[in-house]
């Protein structure tokens, strides 16, 4: 299955997001571990993505193809907000998963 890479411009810096599947489908937001990047979800997406659900993997700030930004633009609240911005444009329900930091963001980000 093919994917689409896009950048999301936030006040705190630009993030790279890779999406597989239909843009209007409910999404699973995949967050890599602190030292990894979105490519770690390629195999999972190849098995799961389709018309429903879509998968959206995020390069956290300063990793992969996301922007390296200055002091004060990192940390839990900003990372949580960045992951929230990667949800589907249609506002359809989405879930968060990932490795290491991903599940924690999913837990602490309830109610995004």
Which class do the helix and strand fractions yield?
alpha/beta
CATH-level-2 architecture:
3-Layer(aba) Sandwich
Overall average residue pLDDT? 77
Question: What best-fitting shape do the alpha-carbon axes yield?
Answer: globular
The total tally of domains equals 1
* Radius of gyration, CA atoms, in whole angstroms: 13 Å
- CATH domain class name: Alpha Beta
| Spatial strand arrangement across the major sheet | 1-2-4-3-5
Task: Let me know the largest β-sheet.
Answer: 5 strands, mixed
- Count the beta strands: 5
Predict the CATH topology: Rossmann fold
Task: Write down the secondary-structure element order.
Answer: EEEHEHEH
Portion in beta strands: 25-35%
**CATH level-4 homologous superfamily:** Alpha/Beta hydrolase fold, catalytic domain
Low-confidence parts lasting 5 or more residues at pLDDT below 50?
Answer: none
End-to-end distance: 28 Å
Helix content: 10-25%
Alpha plus pi helix count:
3
